[in-house]
Amino acid sequence: MNVTNELPLIRVSNVRKLFHGVEVLKGISLDVRAGEKVFVIGPSGSGKSTLLRCINQLEEIDGGCIEIKGERLGFRHAGGRWVRLDDKEIRRQRAGIGMVFQRFNLFGHLTARENIVLAQRKVLGRTKKEAVESAYRQLKRVGLADRGHSYPAELSGGQQQRVAIARALAMDPEIMLFDEPTSSLDPELVNEVLDVIGKLASSGMTIIIVSHEIGFAKRAADTVYMLVEGSIVESGPPGQVIGNPQQERTRAFISQVM
Q: pTM (2 decimals)?
């Protein structure tokens, strides 16, 4: 990746998040530049998925701030103070961020194509023709051009996850967030999903991915963040964090998952 002096596309500054009084994100700060591929690794329960959900405003943060292109997420400045945005304004901010979850989240009563069309019609206001054409393009992009009329139950787990990726891409996001996209898949299906993500990474898409696929992270990442108990304990290029970790907690985790 060519690093420039431009402001980060995403800036996470001292973000804190609590659940029932328990602090699960403890002052997280990181920058992501346009086109950067960021991997967040760490043990289960370390706050990785929560971090993604905060960036996509699926969770409201309890401290710090998150900015995209210099715009603070979730708030606007009015009358000398920060005012929480309403749901419509939050949806506008979220529109440029695609998110792919662990569990696909497809509607079982809709075909693959219909799953992709639905959000475009409701959120983007596209005509049916526009949404169907976009759905076909994205299904083709993920290698499923011939499965648009299939229902989720007729697809393998890997195919369902690729439909979920196509659905997110159909919204024309500038940023893609992946939350353990292969964790629900049988081992033989993992590579087909990683191949799609790898092609997106090669295309210049800005990506933040939470994953235990350390080999993939070593190949595809620009920057790796190691999260433990809600704090970043190590960060840097994959050759450093994965290939030559400096922290004992990072070394222990890498040895367990490699």
A: 0.92
